[in-house]
Design brief:
By secondary structure, the chain is mainly beta. The protein contains 1 helix and 9 strands. The protein has one domain (4-10, 29-145). 3% of the residues lie in helices and 52% in strands. It has an 8-stranded antiparallel beta barrel. Strand 6 and strand 7 (117-124) form a beta hairpin. The protein starts with a helix and ends with a strand. It binds manganese (II) ion.
């Protein structure tokens, strides 16, 4: 049921995005992806593999590489696991029309998961280290990198 909103927004006869019918394996370290999305406004979609879906946030200014920077992250609908490999053009007139590129990908270790706060360590190519996502109300979250201790 988690993917209803994702599917309702898309016409899979017109977009090459996955419909979520694929199955994801859970027998390995969870993955993350950051997709650079050239929609009406450029943003970066940050997705974490949790509970069989990709928990997703749109980060207008991008996930910070360094500590000391807090960025707005707006939670969006859960995406199917196979979206983690999606790159390509979402056609004009379709939801999120524009080009999608994988900006970074890797695995993560979840340190804590609460309804309004997630802590995790990213192990990607561009992004490594401990990060925090904190809900500030509604769909709005802040994402920042923790100072290395
Ligand atoms: Mn997007």
């Amino acid at each position: 049921m988690k993917l209803e909103e994702y599917r309702a927004k898309r016409d899979f006869s017109k977009t090459l995005e996955p419909d979520g019918s694929g199955t994801g394996s859970n027998s390995r370290r969870p993955r993350f992806v950051i997709q650079e999305h050239h929609a009406s406004h450029l943003h970066y979609d940050f997705r974490l593999e949790i509970d069989g879906v990709l928990k997703s946030w749109a980060v207008p200014k991008g996930v910070p590489l360094e500590n000391g920077i807090r960025r707005l992250a707006v939670q969006t609908e859960d995406h199917p696991l196979d979206y983690i490999n999606f790159e390509g053009e979402i056609p004009e007139g379709q939801y999120g029309a524009g080009n999608v590129l994988i900006f970074d990908a890797g695995t993560f270790d979840l340190a804590s998961l609460e309804s309004k706060k997630l802590e995790f360590e990213l192990k990607g190519n561009r992004y490594t280290g401990k990060y925090v996502l904190i809900n500030t109300g509604g769909d709005n979250w802040l994402i920042f990198k923790k100072k290395e201790s």
